[in-house]
Amino acid sequence: MLQYDILIVGAGGAGLYAALETSKRKGLKVAVISKVFPTRSHTGAAQGGVNAALGNVAPDSPEKHAYDTVKGSDFLADQDAVELMCEMAPKIIREMEHMGLPFSRLENGKIAQRPFGGASFPRTCYSADKTGHVMLQTLYEQCIKNNVTFLNEWFALSLVHNGERIAGVVALDLRTGEIHGMRAKAVILATGGHARIYWKRTSNALGNTGDGPAMALRAGVPLKDMEFVQFHPTGLRRTGILVTEGARGEGGYLINKDGERFMKRYAPEKMELAPRDLVSRAIETEIMEGRGFKDSEGNEFVYLDLRHLGKKKILERLPQIRELAIDFEGVDPIEEPIPIRPTAHYSMGGIDTDIYGRTIIKGLYAAGECGCVSVHGANRLGGNSLLDIVVFGKLAGEDAANFVAENSFIPFDESEVRKEEEKIKALFDNDGKERLVDLRNELSDVMTYGAGIFREEKKMKEALEKVREIKERAKHIKVYDKDMTFNTNLQQTLEFLNMVEVAETIVLGALERKESRGAHSRTDYPKRDDENFLKHSIIERTPDGDLKISWKPVKITKFQPEERKY
Amino acid sequence: MESRKVIFRIKRFNPKKDERPYYKEYEIDVPKGMTILEALQYIKDNIDPTLAFRAFCRSAICGSCSVKINGYPKLACKTQVFNELDVYNTNILTIEPIDNMEVIRDLIVDWDSAIQKMEKMRPYLIPDPEVVPETLDEECKVYPHELKKFDKFTDCILCTTCYSACGIVRVDSNYGGPFPLARVYRFAVDPRDSLKKERAKIGFSFDMWNCVRCNKCADVCPKHIAPVDGIMKLRGLSIEIGLRNNPGARHVMAFYKSLQESGMLNEVLLPLRTKGIKGVLENLSIGIKMILKGKAHSPIMKPIKEHETLKEVMKRAMEVE
Known about the structure:
The structure holds two protein chains of two kinds.
Chain A: E1 2-9, H1 13-23, E2 30-34, E3 50-51, H2 62-72, H3 79-98, E4 113-114, E5 124-125, H4 131-145, E6 149-152, E7 154-161, E8 166-173, E9 178-189, H5 211-218, E10 223-224, E11 229-236, H6 246-249, E12 253-255, H7 263-266, H8 276-288, E13 293-294, E14 300-305, H9 311-317, H10 319-329, E15 338-347, E16 350-352, E17 364-366, E18 371-372, H11 385-406, H12 415-429, H13 436-450, E19 454-455, H14 457-473, H15 488-512, E20 521-522, H16 530-533, E21 535-541, E22 547-553
Parallel strand pairs in A: 1-2, 1-9, 2-6, 9-17, 16-18, 19-20
Antiparallel strand pairs in A: 3-5, 4-5, 7-8, 8-9, 10-16, 10-21, 11-15, 12-14, 13-14, 14-15, 21-22
Chain B: E1 3-12, E2 22-31, H1 36-46, E3 66-69, E4 72-75, H2 81-88, E5 92-96, E6 103-105, E7 108-109, H3 112-120, H4 144-151, H5 161-165, H6 167-171, H7 178-188, H8 197-205, H9 216-220, H10 227-240, H11 247-262, H12 270-292, H13 307-320
Parallel strand pairs in B: 1-5
Antiparallel strand pairs in B: 1-2, 3-4, 3-5, 6-7
Helix pairs in contact in B: 3-7, 7-8, 7-10, 8-10, 11-12
């Protein structure tokens, strides 16, 4: 059996930062496993930037950053965690800058900053529109420097623990098809988000299937605030691929069928720079009320107009966006407006952790989008996710390194490996009455319709039933590819099974939260209800397989809840 | 909506099972707007679940899905099917794995060898203590014109497309390859880096002078990086730091000298200046043939009319670099 002091699952920003942190400790045996090659991780797709109160453009402070974040979260974020993140932000940005990260610069040589939705200052550090990409590459480069061990194209299947302490994971080596027990004193889950559940309408990479939360759920580890799924306002009409908020930060307009800048109705002061939940709802409302456009495929959309920015600015600040618009929509933003609609984007909810990424199982950590600290509460501000992953990746790495210094291995029950082998064998032997592609599309429709931008009780009840029905029908999906070398048919099936499991928690959370807050917008309960719902939802699977929901208070330090106005 | 019937001719191979690669054809209806990657996934979902390919971000930023489409390496995710049909004026598209790496299965290749080569070339910043502040209370100053020197090269997504198209990678196993060498250059001109001059030596030890400037890496790069430009500039750095006693550098110097002398390329002296007497002997037979055909000129060349202007232009160009 493979054996490590610390095993990190996932090699995006959180996983790599955790790896870097642990690689500073001498004598630790650490490995990072990833479904993909590290630099393919979805962190690389983040375009816009990363927030830190550097004050390089306008006077700023971590406290103001914290207030904007808490307000943006609709007061559901834990304020101790937010304060910690905002306090660490300037230092961690400089740390990455010292590692060689090529931030865009001001004429005076300092890191440039631009305005982003929901922030009161130009606070977002960026590297043109490739911020996540260069961050991922820089962290990977430093991992090479520090001789971090990578096991690429390995797929984690399950967590092994004894109810109190983590023992390791069971994982599938995709190249060979072999299933391995991997023993570790500590495991850090950094598997990313799960917005692929909205398969046909999402900005996410193909692999953002909620593997971490699904594994946690199966292992009895609670998930937090799962009902909060952020729809990014500007996804490309057909593919859902993202047009960065930087495009609005640079001055882009949103335009409806009547040629009107409709944001004046929803956020007269902030206009296009209002927070994401608000802008997404505004676009969706325009479309519902007949002021959107419709194409021949039936996609409804509005326009993001950048033409007035001019060719020079578009080429300099938004080159990737221009290329995406040309490649995927056949539209050159220098000459034409870009057709866009909201797209499922970010998972605010995730595995329940404290500020060090600790879960209820000792030695098991979660960081980044798969975890929920929570710093984003009911709605994440642009530029805060790249910050979240590095800050809490680092903290989880540090804490895990301390933990393994004081703790030894616990026994790893090898029957857990055989259990996974049998599960996979069963997938080959299923009757094939249901097809993966059909169920995946159905799940996408059920979730978009029942637990999308606008929600209401009746539709959600139907959605919950349908998700459970899809889960039952999924027992008939057959893996036809029998060859174990890079069996992507098997991989996609396992990923789908994870998505269904996580989908159920989203709908259940949404059904039980009878209020509107942040990204969770209920037409039957349009008001925020602090009296009853200023609290985190916690969902866990009981030993008999049912989901159980409970609640946990929000940590409030400095900022008393107030109405959110923009 | 417009759709076309397209035959995808896909190269299949499972080294553990198949004796040799073979092609399998799939005919599907492709709607306008569909990418090659979407078509591959459609085939996998609806016709043949055993088809193996890599894909992840589907928006040209992760570098997973490079394949050969009608012989030309591209990212499947950002390639429109209709465009390809129009370019090749066909309804058949041949999809194959990229070259210069072993096939693991079907369209999936083993890029470990390429990456391992890069890893040996120290592709990371080694901070210069004179530039990078000791504490995290300060940031380094990097001016926009300094960033501009290496910014483009940080766009690389490690898709290995350039590596697969490189002829030198195929014949010289020690050659670093386009993307790794371009990354070496990226750090060589980062003001925060302490290795700086050493970077050119790394390029040197990975045979950067063997690049023949065919420009294929520039043609195929989905991020329009032109790794060859980085390699040329790295060569320039190596000459600057005095790594001149090698055929590549001497060749460049011979060009330079000849232009300085007369404004024209003195091809007669070129072999002598590049490789010494050995060079003359190697080129003797071709030289004699050239003389007999009246193609050779005298080794003593009169400067061209605009010689002084040319020298001034060369001087200014060096200053700009």
